[in-house]
Amino acid sequence: MNDFRTIADRVEIEALRGEFTDAAMMRDRPRLASLFTPDGVLRMPDIPAEQVGREEILAGGERLQSQWDFFVQTTHPGTILLDGDTATGRAYIQELVRALDGRQGLNYAVYHDRYQRTMEGWKFAERVYEVRYLDTSPLAGTAPHAARSSGTDRTDAAVSPAPAASFADPASSRRLERVAAALRANGFAAEVLDDAAAARVRVKDLIPEGAVVFTGASETLRLSGIDEDINAGGRYDAVRPRVLAIDRATGADEIRTLLAAPEFVVNSVAAVTETGSLVLASGSGSQLPANAGGAAHAVWIVGAQKVVPDLGTALRRIEEHALPLENARAQAAYGTPSAVNRLLVLNAEPRPGRGTVLLLREAIGY
Fold first, then answer.
1. Kind of pairing, strands 68-76 and 86-99?
2. pTM as predicted
3. Do residues 259 and 206 lie in contact, with contact meaning Cβ atoms separated by under 8 Å?
4. pLDDT of res. 79
5. Which residues are CB-contacts of 348 (< 8 A; sequence separation ≥ 6)?
6. What are the C-alpha distances in Å from 129 to residues 4, 45, 109, 111?
7. How confident is residue 154, by pLDDT bands cut at 50, 70 and 90?
C-alpha cells in the first residue's frame, strides 16, 4: 500500500508540473494560478518578481503574458522527495521567448519546488525560478498568429491585434474579474458591477456629501446620470459649475487651480488593459492633473467594451474607435474637431486606496 501511494504521489506531482507548462503555453492564467495553494508563492529573482497568493500569481502572469510575441516552454522531469503530505523537487526548463518590444532569447532554468497535498490534490506551495543559462541572440523563427491565442478562451485571450469592431464589444465577466485582479495588484481598488445604475449608487457611497468633486468630460458619466447627480444634484460642492461661471480670459489661473486639485475626481477612461493600467486621452489636458494624482481621491467608471490586452491596443482603441466618435460629437456640439493632444497612462497607484475603478458588465460611453 505504501509503495502504491508513493508511486501515485510521484505521478500526480509530475502531472502538476506538466499542467503548469500547459497552462503557460495555452495562456490560461486562471488555470495556472489554481495550481498553487491559496497562499502559494511564485518567486523569480532573476526577473525580478515575487507573487504571493493566487490573485497575485494570476495578475502577474497576465502582465508578463501581455508582453509576449511568442513563448515556448519545455519542462524536463527532475527530482521529487516525498515527506508525508509535503514534498520538494526540481524541474528543468528550456524556454524560447520574444517580447513585443523586441527583447528575445533562449534560456535554461530550474524550478525549485515545494508541494503540498490538499483536498484538491497536490498543489505548488512554492516555485522558485533560477536561470542557469541565457542567450539573447536574435531568434530566427516566427509564430503563426493562430498560435498566439489561448486554446481555452480564444475570444478573451487573443493577443494578436484586435479588429476595430471589437472595440465596441463588452468583455466577458470572467475577463472583467481578471482585469479587476490586475488593477488590485497595481494598487487600485477595483469592483465589478452589473451596470451604470449600480455605479450611480456606488458613487454616492464612495463620495461623502459636501465633498469637492470635479467630473471629467465623459460620455459614460453623462449617459449614466452620474454627471447630473454630481453637478446638478446639490449633494456636493461641484467644481464644474463653478468653472463654467468663471470668465476664461480673466480667471484662467483660478480655473486651473480648481481643476488640478479637487478632493475627488470622477471620470472614465479610454481603455483599461488586462495588465491593470488605465489610459486617458484629452484634447486640452485640463482634466488630466486631477486624475494623475492632484485629486485626493479618484473614481473611474469603465464600460466593459473598454478592456484591451495591452497598452499598444489601448492606443489603437483611442485612435481608431474613441477619437472618431468624440470628433463627431465635438463637431456637432461646438463646431470644432477633437484631437488626442494629451495622453495619461496610470500603470499603478502609489497611494493604495486613492483610486477606485468601477468596472461595468455593460458597454457604455465610447
1. antiparallel
2. 0.59
3. no
4. 94
5. 186, 187, 188, 276
6. 31, 7, 7, 5
7. very low
Residue 131 class from Cβ within 10 Å (0-12 exposed, 13-18 middle, 19+ buried)?
A: middle
How confident is the model over 112-128, as a mean pLDDT? 96
What are the contacts of 325-329 at 24+ separation with CB within 8 A? Answer: 325/366, 326/219, 326/366, 329/219
- Is the pLDDT at 117 greater than 80? The verdict is yes
**pLDDT tens string 261-272:** 999 999 999 999
CB-count burial class (<10 Å; 0-12, 13-18, 19+) for 101: exposed
Give the percent of the chain with pLDDT over 90.
66
Terminal C-alpha separation, the chain: 64
* Cα–Cα distance for residue pair 179/275, rounded to 1 Å: 7
CA distance 239 to 11: 64
91: Cα within 13 Å, side-chain hemisphere: 27
**pLDDT tens for each residue of 318-341:** 998 999 888 888 888 778 888 999
Within a 13 Å sphere around the CA of 339, how many CA atoms are in the beta-carbon half?
A: 6
- Return d(Cα 89, Cα 17) in angstroms, integer: 10
Give yes or no for residue 101 having a pLDDT over 80.
no
Residue 175, SS3 per DSSP: helix
Residue whose grid cell is 499598444: 312
**Mean pLDDT, range 73-101, rounded to an integer:** 90
Residue recorded with cell 487651480: 257
Q: Which of 292, 224, 301 is nearest to 270 (CA)?
A: 301
pLDDT at 337: 86
So what's the pLDDT on residue 251? 92
- Lookup result for grid cell 528550456: 94
Cell numbers 528575445 label which residue? 104
Is the separation of the CB atoms in 115 and 41 below 8 Å? no
